Amino acid sequence: MDVGIVNAHEMLGLDELEDDMKVLCENLVFNKTEEATEDMLKRTNYERALKEALKKGLPPPRKPRGPPVIKPRLQFDYDKIPPTKATEPPLPTSYAAQNHVPNPYLNTNLTHEKIAAIRAKASIKDVNIDYAQPSDLYPESFPHFVRGRDSAREYITSLFTSQIALYDGAMGTMIQNYGKRNKLGEEEYRGEKFKDWTCNVKGNNDMLSISQPQIISNIYREYLEIGGSNMIGTNTFSSTTIAMADYEMEAYAYELNYEGARLAREVCDEVTAKDPTKPRFVVGALGPTNRTGSISPSVEDPSARNVDFDELVDTYLEQTVALVDGGCDILMVETIFDTLNAKAALYAIGEFLEFSGLDIPVFVSGTLVDQSGRTLSGQTGEAFYASIRHSKPMCVGLNCALGAQHMVPFVERLSKVVECFMHVYSNAGLPNAMGGYDDTPTDMAQHNKVFFEKGWLNMVGGCCGSTPQHIKAIREMSSQFETRKLPDVGRPKMWLSGLEDLVVDDVHNHLGLPFLNVGERCNISGSIRFKKLMMKGDYGTAMDIAKKQVEDGAHVLDINVDDGMLDGLAAMQKFVKIAVTEPEVSKVPFMLDASKFDIVLAGLKWCQGKCIINSISLKVGEELFMEQATLLKKHGAAVVVMAFDEDGQAATASEKLRICKRSYDVLVNKVKFPPEDIIFDPNVLTIGTGMEEHNNYGVDFINATKRIKEECPYVKISGGISNLSFGFRGVTKIRESIHSVFLHHAILESGMDVGIVNSHEMMAISEVEPALKKASEDLVFNKTDQATETMLELTTKEKAAMELRKLGGGAVAVKEASWRDFVATKRLEHALVNGISQYVIPDVEEARQTAEKPLHVIEGPLMDGMNVVGDLFGAGKMFLPQVIKSARVMKKAVAYLLPFMEEEKKQAMIDKGLDPNDFDENDDSNYAGKVLMATVKGDVHDIGKNIVAVVLGCNNYKVYDIGVMCTCEKILEKAKEYDVDVIGLSGLITPSLDEMVDVAKEMSKLGFTQPLLIGGATTSKMHTAVKISPNFFSLAHPVIHVLDASRSVTVVSSLLGENKEEFVTDIMEEYDEMREDYYAGLEDRYFLTFEQAKERKIKIDFDAVPPPPAPKKLGVTVIDTVNLADIVPYMDWNPFFQTWELRGRYPNRGYPKIFKDETVGSEAKKLFDDAQTMMREIIADGSMQVKGVVGLFPANCSADGEDVHIYASEEARESGDIMASYCMLRQQAEKESEDPYLSQADFVAPAGYKDHLGMFAVSCFGCDKLVAKYEADNDDYSKIMAQSLADRFVEAFAEYLHREIRTDMWGYAADENLAEEDLLKIKYDGIRPAPGYPSQPDHTEKSTMWEVLKAKELAGMELSESLSMLPAASVSALVFAHPESQYFAVGQIGKDQVTSYAERKKMDLSKMERWLNPILNYERD
Predict the structure, then answer these.
(1) Using CA atoms, how far apart are residues 91 and 23, in angstroms rounded to an integer?
(2) What confidence category does residue 793 fall into, taking pLDDT thresholds of 50, 70 and 90?
């Protein structure tokens, strides 16, 4: 560039820019970051404020930080060692694993007291538990394998590095498939052994290993022989005492695992014997249980849990012992949705391996529940791996929840970080609407192909929906590709995790320093406010402090509740259990900090992530020090080791080095503690105290840091930075300046890695004022004798300036836009979406002051906020724990409003002259509603249900959660007992879908009127619409699928609110369309034969419910004296707006609420006003008139039940003289319910009963003339308006006439007294379907009606060649009076019925097919 128009005087050289300003400008000019403009705006505001402050002689405002300038990390010799090639996955530290000692498979030799105790309480005794093979059974070289001779670890390494090994597929799918072909009901599940069991056990697949062992063995065999699997998982996914409690089978846990493994062992040996070059291995499967250690099941208490770590360890240890006794070669912790459960399982396995001295390879498989790439408890895949890698699994991967194609980004990310072998066993696609899986073997193999092409896997298999054929196809596909190469072994790094992972060695903080910020404000000794909150037990507000620490830049959160007046053990556990449910807090790792080891250990057992424990030291003696370190190693925690020993605290650099080096040698060489997980705290001691012996403490720490890092490879150095400047407490500016100088040098020159700091107050060294910087350097490095005195003088000046600012002077604040500036209603919405509880009470009060009633605050801004939460969750912008948090903010708001609502209720009683103190203690009218929640029979999964219960409970709904494995009888019994408003059913497994259908049917039979909500992982909107809804859905009691917890509040509030009808109508229409689309797209939909359909017709008991009485007048009556003004009240205006394509959205979808709709409301109102004007003109001038004919005749169903014969009189009926016959069509498409197959003929009694049939045809005349007039005037708007009104007039006339028939002409409902609006909702007895419409979709039946009614002769109505009625504004219908008559859709029909129908109508078949073409289920010739 050569030329520019500039202000030369103001131009700056590039080297004249401050470093941070240079970065800001480069980011802006080169569009390097999305925040570039926002960062520059902040800097601009600061420069303006600075200019203003200088003008007024005020202190300068604090300079905003732009993007940090990244500083390099100090390198040590061990950082420069190049990576080496990996020959096997990282090894456990046991002797057997390190030396590849073969498992002897002589389990009778395992006599540790805990192993013996587990066997002693087992339900089976004296079984074979030894599986050693003769050493010469097979040759001594790979690929042969002999148990007791060869190391399974070595063999798997050879197998996985030479080919992509094959795991098996889904056990549950195979059992379900077996059940489709064979009887597998409650009786078969019980078998002989459990035939008298006290509860239902169907669905307990694991027990089939005992009750139906041949089924399980055959499934194992198919995977080995057809699929070609190298290893198979045992049928023990739920075989823990915890999961089996739902079947009352806890005592059989050992036997279930033993038999599941033994059967697999036998089949594997059988198949191996056929081809010893392909040994088959048994993988003992340990599932996740049906409880979670990380999520609260309680609305009231986020710290509540229904299982603890030790209980999980106990159940997993029993399972491990039994699996090994059953002969398994490998142990697999699988389908991990909560990593805390997995850590407990791995801990139990570790204990067993320690007790036994065996080397058994361990595999671990996580489950990412959706496209967010997180586990159910919120962890990313990387965080999950970081949390469990301490157990040294031989293979790690993902399974379940997703199809292979959906796993690709997550497998790729995991493959980049996993140091051991990798596997995937995905589902056969995502569940379809019916809970099944659509991927064919070819599909699934193709979807897995990308894993093989990219070299991401060493083992592959299948999960839900997969079969041996799927595994075979995957095997054939994978055989074409190389197996995954183990990553090179590089420098070990500290790898922590919360909900997200954090590699400490790669961290830079918000100042650009290679330093881990540990937030200090959740430490009783670091924050007076935090201490007060802990003493009060205000954990909710304490969480706000924790969240603020993370927002301000803390990478790790220090949690310390040490205080003599506080129960530290209880407080630590409660704080951690709440914190792990707060996503903004738990996304970072925790540092659990206490002076008592039992307190940090208790907290550690509630953390799913990899934590830091602060601290242990040699102060307690070497033996106890090793014991504590060993426990922490088993839990996978990193540890802070203080520079203390038996003689006390290290103060000098040499003492710091001596104690840290001794501690390092004990930990690394004796305990085998990973050196990268050691953080030494060489004691940051206070300087500037005025005592000469303290002056060199800063120098000693900085010097010791570098020496320790040199002598103790891979360790980290930490310190409590606030100790350094303790002498200057109360003057933040001084303290942070000292800290800035100290950290700058300790980090960049000596390699300090970690510090407990207040991130928000930290200063970059460039931000320290020159005078303070020099004074701080003199103090920290003990450069002059006057360093302390100089700092005291500066501190005195700063303190005086602080006092002046308090009196009204001070720096000019740079005001940033704040959500606190919003109006109260918007502040409430913001608080709900962001889970902020701090201001909710004053904001609710402000909103209450402007609301008519307290309830309106709940129904207005609070519900608006929860709706936003639902939208964000549905869009993937929030994940599950955040929804829970928002709900708890809602609960706090509602709790504040309840006393006002109670007072309002009391005042209402006073106004009525009632005693306000005379109230029912059980009055629950202040609840928004009562909801019953249940997991259906056969299903033990309740986590999702619990979450929904929490969210609803926080929104002021009384929730009755009646648990899991709930029978239909129990659900409905409890619904009656609690008198609930809504019933919610939950289920995770496919059989649960059938249970839900059964519940819906039973609710219909018993006359329940509560809405039914359906939810759970295996459910879907489509399944609900197609399978469940038809059994129960009505406007009064809909069946609604609820996608997730965030939507539950919106659904329930809509069902119990004033707009229920519009809400339900929307869903009804959507479900109707979904069913139509589903069946239309179902190529292989099954149809009953015509004969079968007739057999399953509705059978009305005409004796119990006899036909209505005879009409007052039989025959045809002309109706031509009705005035238009008389029928206006019968008008339904909703179709009018649809004609003009104006549709309001819920809750303003129908007339008259459409006028309130934001989008179309004003236009709809203008249109309606125009219609009213024209309607008045038409009525006044008589330009339109209505006329019609009504016929009422004796009638009976034909002998074959398919047609209706009508007679001219009773005498004609007696003589069998048929006047005409109406031919009817019957449903044939298979139904998902037990509903009958309907025909309109079913609603008329057969011969022998005096039944009748009505009919009418009506028209609006005069419209054509009016239309011609408007066309002549080129007035298209008025033309369409006239046509629209003619349609409304004739429909209103039809409604009016049908009422006259019911109440007078026929008179079967003479006492009917319905309002016009109820008429439009069809709340009367009987129906009036029209020929050509769904209940009788044959237009040719109009010809019969016209002949009978003499419609042309008496009313001037004609039929066109295509059987359209003329005039266009015409309506015709048959009138059925029996109370059991109903509207329905015939749907598609088969050729057998069409043939019969053509014969009955005496019409040529081909001609009949042309008229019925739209509903034929076959292609006509």
Answers:
(1) 45
(2) confident
Retrieve residue 1123's tokens: 């005035």
Give me the sign of the Cα torsion angle 1086, 1089, 1093, 1096. negative
User: Would you state the structure tokens that stand for residue 1140, as one six-digit string?
Assistant: 């003009």
Q: First vs last Cα of the chain: how many Å apart?
A: 78
Identity of residue 429: G
Q: What is the C-alpha to C-alpha distance for residues 35 and 857, in angstroms, rounded to an integer? A: 36
Taking alpha carbons only, the member of 850, 857, 1064 closest to residue 956 is 857
Q: Name the β-bridge partners of 1369.
A: none
What residues contact 143, with CB distance under 8 A and at least 6 apart?
158, 159, 277, 278, 279
| Pairing mode of beta strands 1115-1119, 1185-1197 | antiparallel
Distance between CA 460 and CA 1144 in Å, rounded? Answer: 52
Q: In terms of pLDDT, which residue wins out, 1333 or 284?
A: 284
The HSE-up count of residue 707 (CA atoms within 13 Å, CB side) is 17
Per the CB < 8 A criterion, the answer to whether 431 and 400 are in contact is no
Give, for 865, the enclosing helix (H) or strand (E): helix 863-874
This prediction has a pTM of 0.69
As given in the structure block, the two tokens for residue 1017 are 């992982």
Complete edge-to-edge strand list for the sheet that includes strand 459-462: 165-166, 459-462, 421-427, 395-403, 362-366, 330-336, 281-286, 231-233
CB-based contact 1135:1300 (threshold 8 Å): no
DSSP bridge partners of 1251: 1195
Question: How many CA atoms lie within 13 Å of 654's alpha carbon, on the beta-carbon side?
Answer: 0
DSSP secondary-structure letter at 362? E
What span, in angstroms and rounded, lies between the C-alpha atoms of 58 and 801? 11
Q: Are 1283 and 1267 in contact (CB under 8 A)?
A: yes
Evaluated on CA atoms 1259, 1262, 1265, 1269, the torsion sign reads negative
Strand segments (E) across 383-533 = 395-403, 421-427, 459-462, 495-497, 501-503, 516-519
Bond prior to 92 in cis (omega within 30° of 0): no
State yes or no: pLDDT of 48 exceeds 80.
yes
- Residue 900 near residue 854, CB atoms below 8 Å: yes
Residue type for 518, please?
V
Question: Token pair of 692, please?
Answer: 């000469």
Q: 1331 phi and psi, to 5 degrees?
A: -60, 140
Question: What is the structure's pLDDT at 1083?
Answer: 52
CA 1069/CA 1064 separation, integer angstroms: 9
In contact, 838 and 820? CB cutoff 8 Å: no
Q: How much is the mean pLDDT over the chain?
A: 90
What residues contact residue 1197 under an 8 Å CB cut-off, 6+ apart? 1203, 1204, 1205, 1241, 1242, 1244, 1245, 1246, 1247, 1251
Amino acid type, 115:
I
List own/partner pairs for 1032-1035 with CB under 8 A and 24 or more apart. Answer: 1032/1000, 1032/1001, 1032/1003, 1032/1004, 1032/1008, 1033/1068, 1033/1071, 1035/1061, 1035/1064, 1035/1065, 1035/1068, 1035/1321
3-state DSSP assignment of residue 1187: strand
Q: How many residues does the chain have?
A: 1421
- DSSP H helical segments within 422-538, as ranges? 441-453, 468-478, 528-536
Instruction: Return the percentage of the chain with pLDDT > 90, whole number.
Output: 63
Residue with tokens 């069809």: 1322
Mean pLDDT of 192-197: 94
Structure tokens at 1345: 């009606």
- Type of residue at 1036: A
Residue 210 in contact with residue 254, Cβ under 8 Å?
Answer: no
Please give the Cα distance from 556 to 592 (Å, whole number): 10
Q: Which of 281, 287, 279, 294 is nearest to 320 (CA)?
A: 287
Indicate if the pLDDT at residue 1179 is higher than 70: yes
- Token pair belonging to 641: 């080791």
- Residues involved in catalysis: 939, 941, 992
Structure tokens at 213: 């062992």
Report residue 802: phi and psi, to 5°. -65, -40
